[in-house]
Amino acid sequence: MRAAAFTDLVGPEGVRVVDQPDPEPARGEAVVDVEACSINRHDLWILEGDSAMVDADDLPFVSGLDVAGTVREAAPDVTGVEPGDRVVLCPNETCGRCRFCREGPENMCERFSLYHGGLAERARVTADRLVALPDGVDTTTAAALPTAYMTAYRMLRRADVTTGDRVFVPGATGGVGVAAVQLCDALGIETVGTSRSAAKLDRVREVGLDRGIESADTDEIEAAIDEPVDAVVNHLGGEYSNLGQSVLRRGGTMVVCGRTAGGTSEFDVADLFLGHKRIVGSTMGTQSDLERLVAFVEDGRLDPVVDETYPLAETGAAFAAMQERESVGKLVVVS
Ligand SMILES: NC(=O)c1ccc[n+]([C@@H]2O[C@H](COP(=O)([O-])OP(=O)(O)OC[C@H]3O[C@@H](n4cnc5c(N)ncnc54)[C@H](OP(=O)(O)O)[C@@H]3O)[C@@H](O)[C@H]2O)c1
Ligand SMILES: [Zn+2]
């Protein structure tokens, strides 16, 4: 089979289509004919050599978490899926033994890791991590869901927001950002988002953004937010954390899942305790979150934004578009 492998950790030009042996399912596993796999900034970190998870010794490395397709083969002990089933993968890898695996939520597993291998024609996966796709949900749309939408959904749950609240989404045009905006819109929550691009903000307005601030200057953004927000979906980190804390209302919650704009942030301690604010970390979501998201798509409440699809041979171009910050929503590699 063909795979779009990272052969050099130098950015998009390090992606090559290589031939690899066809995968065989081991106990508890299935092999999926991959029809679509969305990319995430997580894959780009790896490709740019900025992830502790993959180094030169691991090359060629096949990334890709968000797999959707059709089951080709299942190991004899697998009972939950069979060849021909249309599925999307929950990329969570958990130990099944720690207290979070036993009591939930599973995404807090003490040995939590992520599946990689979807940027290929076939993927060998844990069968129990496959979520069935209803007829009305196509595989390109489904592939947009796992990492970005599951993470945004869990962040909103952690922020405990409800209809009528206001949420600030700095960086509202990417995978997690657009997902947060659309989920808020579906829940009747108002959103304020930012981007350095007016054109990209216009497109996010079309899918539910209430107010867009075109700026990359955190002081300017802070000045533009005249009314404090109930929660912040912060996938940028760096100085956006200070900004998020500043615009948070008394008792509000900022949920942090990423570090695109910087791996360290400073906090105004007095503002934190005097304002009774909460800052919480969050990673991915649970498989039941993903099941719910699939149901939201099926019943028409959610229509994930896929900006562009790329054939497997053009996976490098998909990463270049992400690196250049050209896209809105998700980029999906299709076979
Ligand atoms: N912990 C988790 O489980 C988890 C899960 C998913 C994602 N994440 C993290 O969340 C972040 C977003 O992931 P993603 O896949 O949604 O990425 P993405 O699609 O590439 O995000 C693009 C968004 O980020 C903004 N952006 C990019 N670089 C920026 C910079 N240097 N300064 C300010 N804004 C910048 C873009 O703003 P413009 O519109 O101005 O270009 C755009 O709104 C990443 O850090 C990722 O690792 C974490
Ligand atoms: Zn565990």
Please describe the structure with a list of short key phrases separated by commas or semicolons.
335 residues; alpha/beta; Quinone Oxidoreductase, Chain A, domain 1; Rossmann fold; 7-stranded mixed beta sheet; 6-stranded parallel beta sheet; 10 helices; binds NADP nicotinamide-adenine-dinucleotide phosphate; binds zinc ion
Structure description:
It is a single chain. The chain has 335 residues and is an alpha/beta fold. It folds into two domains: 2-132 and 305-334, Medium-chain alcohol dehydrogenases, catalytic domain (Quinone Oxidoreductase, Chain A, domain 1), CATH 3.90.180.10; 149-281, Rossmann fold (3-Layer(aba) Sandwich). The chain has helices spanning 41-47, 99-103, 139-159, 175-187, 198-206, 218-224, 239-247, 269-274, 287-298, 315-323, and strands at residues 2-6, 15-19, 29-39, 66-74, 86-89, 92-93, 113-114, 122-126, 130-132, 166-169, 190-195, 211-214, 229-234, 248-256, 278-281, 306-311, 330-334. Strands 3, 4, 5, 8, 9, 16 and 17 form a seven-stranded mixed sheet that branches. Strands 12-11-10-13-14-15 form a six-stranded parallel sheet, sandwiched between helices. Strands 1-2 form a two-stranded antiparallel sheet. α6 (218-224) packs parallel to α7. The longest helix is centred in the middle third of the chain and has 21 residues, at 139-159. The mean pLDDT is 98. Zinc ion is lined by residues 94-95, 97-98, 100-101, 109-111. Residues 11-333 form the Enoyl reductase (ER) domain. Pfam families: ADH_N (PF08240), ADH_zinc_N (PF00107).
